[in-house]
Specification:
This protein is mainly β. The protein contains two helices and seven strands. The chain starts with a helix and ends with a strand. The N terminus is likely disordered.
Amino acid sequence: MASVVFFLHGISLADEIHFPDDHAPIQVMGDHTHKAGEWMTSYRYGFMKMDGNRNGTDNLSTAEVLSDFMVAPVDMTMQMHMFGLMYWITDRLTMMGMGSYVRKSMNHVNRMNTKFEVETQGLGDIKLLGLLNIYD
């Protein structure tokens, strides 16, 4: 059985058969190379929701936060659209560009129990990277 698995994995390295584990998980960028002149695009969506307050590992109530601050956060949501573009200049050198569009919304309450929301949206960080293949 081990020889069959080894044989099939050897074929996948020759670009004839692809297996699900040929690439790293989607969060890992730059785990593989292609041939010169090839392009690859990617899109990822991220969502996060947080609520409550902490001081280190201790949970804090809103009243505890308001005893030290005039405003306390209640909850926050974030949506992120992440775009990637890779171009293989040579068989050894890959250029990568990544950017994102982010939307954040946070609810607050103040000492007079007035609730309000703040929102922001726009372009996130832009990364330009190079990937050099030093071992085949």
